[in-house]
Amino acid sequence: MTVYKYGKIVHVNSNYLILDHNGSGELIYVPNISRFVRDDFKKIFISNIENEYMKVTYGFETFKELVMFEDLISLQGLGPKTAMTILNEGWEKILALIAKGDANELEKINFVSKKIANNIILNYKDKYAKFLEKLDGNFEEYNKKLKVNNTYINQFEDTMKMLGFKPSQIKYALNNVEVNENIEKCVEDAIKLISQHNNEVRV
User: Fold this and answer.
1) CB 174 within 8 A of CB 34
2) Superfamily covering domain 4-60
3) Which of 30, 44, 94, 163 has fewest C-beta within 10 Å?
4) With pLDDT > 90 as the criterion, what percentage of the chain qualifies?
5) Closest CA to 136 of 99, 109, 106
6) What is the rounded average pLDDT for all residues in the chain?
């Protein structure tokens, strides 16, 4: 069983990349694509989903993120695409939401119904609470960091709205830009990404 692949990223699109691994180009779908930069050499943890119709490879920056993906798709009614949409929010954020049983926030994610959110929490709340304690050593401190990040995201969203961007464009930007305290720079990066995405769609 292959857990990860190492190679050079030769192409980055809106939700997938192509990794040159031992001279072979591999198409890998990844969450938070902004973390993956063209021409970088990268270790990518992978999960292969195969059925009679197709074979799709999903990739992750860390082993922890891969474990979360595998956990999510093991639940009834939750497929790989929904799991990737969830992880687009940031695996650390999702980990914290599940650990504290915040179904309302999970429901705000596209394709996540109340039933799915409750099922995720029912199955993984205790596991992820322990996981988070080991990861951070301080659950409350992690929640404080999460609130700060949410503040930056709210500022980013407000700025994008004032500039006239549609909700779908803002959502796309949030999935592909790592928002931090430098809101102006994040907005500039988002505008470039949205413009690039629009051009790709036209082609």
Assistant:
1) no
2) Nucleic acid-binding proteins (2.40.50.140)
3) 163
4) 63
5) 99
6) 89
